[in-house]
Design brief:
- By secondary structure, the chain is of the alpha+beta class.
- It has eight helices and ten strands.
- The longest helix is centred in the N-terminal third of the chain and has 21 residues, at about 30-50.
- It is globular.
- Its EC number is 3.5.4.29.
- Belongs to the archaeal-type GTP cyclohydrolase family.
């Protein structure tokens, strides 16, 4: 159903490789500063429009942009061009699942790249209609008592290895369910999961515990925009953390 579709925006820094080479060899600290500042700017802007942004690669981000028209995307392109020494291109698409939406947006980018070697400030694709904001489902995963189990018993690097191993495992499992997973800091992971039923999330948590010995809990938020779904997912997770339910998964909806 069209009312349940999700809108995804892929954000890419234009000509990033060639531009970085103009900075000389002593550039890595400058690149890290630029990437973090640009990411913060995009997170702030999309949040102001009730969206949410995640790193995909440091020169590429993925936003859940339900309710944000193409005209507003143009505004953020102008804002970036005014504040940073780089431009961004964006491809917007919708789908029944997050994977489908990002695939369509990726294909739009690739079609242009086959015709134009180094496109700049592209804004391509389609957005949901103003009267149909679609639907966003977000799953916020958290490891049970990670600090006691690993942070306080192993070196910082060894505990980080566990975080990365789990990130890879969850990425593959969510990909099998046409969902997108992103690392959210600490021992937290966020998945955009339209189309994934509650029973599959519960089964996934059980399988990870059996295979890796890592117990998880998950808060799920469902709403019309990315920001609201993220808020509800976090509230659901807090509900579990506070011991208000014995379940490993809790869902909040606001439609």
């Amino acid at each position: 159903m069209s009312s349940e579709r999700i809108q995804i925006t892929i954000i890419r820094i234009d000509d990033y490789g060639p531009w970085t080479q103009t900075l000389g060899d002593d550039r890595e600290h400058r690149l890290q500063i630029l990437q973090s500042q640009l990411y913060a700017h995009l997170v702030d802007w999309f949040a102001s429009q009730n969206g949410v942004v995640f790193y995909n690669k440091y020169d590429e981000m993925i936003a859940v942009s339900n309710g944000i028209p193409l005209s507003k995307h143009k505004d953020i392109q102008r804002s970036v061009a005014q504040r940073f020494p780089v431009n961004i291109s964006m491809s917007v698409s919708v789908g029944e699942t997050p994977y489908e939406a990002q695939l369509k947006a990726s294909e739009l980018f690739n079609e242009v790249l086959r015709r134009v070697a180094e496109p700049r400030s592209l804004l391509i694709g389609e957005a949901l209609s103003p009267i149909n904001k679609g639907l966003v489902k977000i799953v916020h995963f958290d490891v049970d008592d990670f600090t006691r189990r690993w942070t306080n018993t192993q070196s910082v690097y060894e505990s980080a290895r566990i975080v990365r191993r789990l990130y890879y495992e969850l990425t593959e499992l969510m990909f099998e369910n046409h969902s997108l997973l992103f690392y959210n800091g600490g021992d937290n992971y966020v998945s955009v999961s339209n189309g994934m039923p509650l029973t599959r999330v519960e089964q996934l948590i059980s399988n990870v515990d059996k295979r890796m010995g890592i117990p998880l809990k998950a808060g799920i938020g469902v709403s019309r925009t990315g920001r609201k779904a993220m808020q509800l997912a976090t509230s659901s997770l807090e509900y579990i953390r506070e011991g208000k339910t014995q379940s490993k998964v809790h869902v909040l909806e606001e439609l």
